[in-house]
Amino acid sequence: MMTPKTILFKDSFANNQNNWEQRNDATAKLEIANSTYLIEHRQEGKVFPVTSPVNLSEGADYEIQATLQKVSGVDNYGFGLVWGMQDSNNFYTFQISNEGQYRLSQLVKGEWQVQRAWTDTPRLKKYNLANKLAIRQTGAQTSFYINEQLVDTLTFPFDGFGKQIGFIVSSVMTIKVYNLVVTQFDTVGQASCLSTTDRQDARPTATAEQKTAEKPKEPEETLEQVLAQLHGLIGLANIKEQINTFINFLKVQQERQKRGLSKTSVSLHMVLCGPPGTGKTTVARLIGKIYKHLGFLAKGQLIETDRAGLVGGYVGQTALKVDEKVKEALGGVLFIDEAYTLKPAGATSDFGQEAIDILLKRMEDQRGEIAVVIAGYPDEMDRFLEANPGIKSRFSRYFLFEHYSPADLFRIYEKFCQEGSYKLTEEATKRVEEVIKVAYDQRDRTFGNGRFARNLFEQTLEQQANRLATITPLTDELLNTFTVEDIPDDILLDTVIV
Who has greater pLDDT, 210 or 344? Predict the structure, then answer.
């Protein structure tokens, strides 16, 4: 039988039935709007918790779930869930960052105690996408889930559990919260703290009651929807054309195979060359989905890694790290960013070569089960491939990503504005176009492209906040409008071109 459970707290933010704090001042903006709780933290380097009381029994097994999304602000600071808060000096935190990491910590009597330092995880969706977090307590054990996948388990030493549960934002950042659900399990020590996938592995047969209680799966994207996402990307005309040609080739080979005709050997591996911020990771993610829909890969997931994720620091560690990443990527795409760092120019003795050799062996052993996509700057990738004939022979498809044009950069900036319901005055529009053109004309090989446009937008948000800080009363029109004063000048841009 299922463990009896009680939903203690549930909010989808259709209104403010749970009396969340709302305000708009120099320190923060808190607002219930469009079925979300928007939290805009305006103080750099400070921690900002927002909580609500929950009548959770002492020592009970429980589960906290919430879906959060970063909207704007810094990437390398955390945001997420805060729970068990007694007061401002005692609480637990489960934080994530937009760079794909999570951290577990607690504040005890005003002193931070980090239980798990910032740790990379492929479970996190980056690039300002929404993520579902869950905390599940069973007896003395606390398990942490990201998008229904277990990422960590700890036993917290601090036993002063409080009744406040909510959200935490570090430094200047805006997030949206879509829901918060707190469930208490009535039988201590027997809460189901497994994800859907874990439950299937642990219990091959489920009761009718369990099947009914399981959350239905979201409809899977169709091939047409994936292709629509590809063609909806700004710019990249040459990349889209090359991928269309490749898809047509794959379809023909698939049809020949169905009819029993001879077919050309298909290599799923590819090289993506180009400067940062030009959409290489996004395209690799869509390629994985395309492979799945065409029947060439079973799952189509994207697993991102780099040198740190593949190369060990001592004998034997590298093989373990490579095997772990390959296992994660089976049925999908293993994306290796800055692949040339596996074997730096001039390196003689380095574990990077071991990683390359093991990866090549796994690509051969797992042929047809994995696609490896390597990416980086064009010159460095050319050097890397020429120095490693074994790698070069396995990659037959090369895609060259070019810098976005000023017009495309403005469209990307404009897209950020539209997503945040912001509009530009005519003077502000001209100023943004001027700033983009100057930055584009002065660009070097490290120019950030899409990241530059995002940083320009975030700088605009901050300057608008400074301008509005002295204005009362604030209207929706003021809050949703960027004026020419809000657009950063060249001095500010020196800090955001990456």
Answer: 344
Using the 3D structure, point to which of 194, 213, 232 is the last residue of a domain: 213
Comparing C-alpha atoms, which of 51, 52, 64 is closest to residue 5? 64
The stretches of 393-485 forming alpha helices (DSSP H) are 406-419, 426-441, 450-468, 476-479
Angle made by CA atoms 167, 173, 176, in degrees to the nearest 5 = 50
- Mean pLDDT (the chain) is 83
Is the domain of 77 the same as that of 203? yes
Helix H or strand E encompassing 246: helix 237-258
Side-chain-side CA neighbours of 168 within 13 Å: the count stands at 28
- Token pair for residue 2? 């299922």
CA dihedral 121, 123, 127, 132 (to 10 degrees): -130
Answer for the pair 294, 250: CB distance below 8 angstroms, yes or no: yes
- 314 burial type by CB count under 10 A (0-12 exposed, 13-18 middle, 19+ buried): exposed
Q: Are residues 424 and 380 in the same domain?
A: no
Closest CA to 377 of 300, 312, 449: 449
Residue 58's CATH number: 2.60.120.200
pLDDT at 446: 82
Do both 207 and 271 map to the same domain?
no
Domain total of the chain: 3
> What CATH number is associated with residue 464?
1.10.8.60
Residue 412 to residues 233, 402, 433, 493, Cα–Cα distance (Å): 9, 15, 12, 17
Whether 258 and 362 share a structural domain: yes
* Section 426-433 average pLDDT: 95
> What b/e string do you get for 331-359 counting C-beta neighbours within 10 Å, with b at 16 or more?
bbbbbbbbbbbbbeeeeeeebbbbbbebb
Residues 359 and 440 in one domain: no
pTM over 0.70: no
DSSP classification of residue 339 = G
Q: Please list, residue by residue across 24-35, b when 16 or more beta carbons sit within 10 angstroms of its beta carbon and e when fewer do.
A: eeeebbbbbeee
* 394's tokens: 């396995």
Q: Which domain holds residue 460?
A: 406-493
Phi and psi of 258, rounded to 5°?
-60, -35
Which amino acid makes up residue 428? A
Tens of pLDDT, residues 454-464: 889 989 998 99
The answer on 108 and 178 residing in a single domain is yes
Tokens representing 170 are 């570090």
Are the CB atoms for 355 and 318 separated by under 8 Å?
Answer: yes
For residues 282 and 428, membership in a common domain is answered with no
- Say if residue 195 is in the same domain as residue 337: no
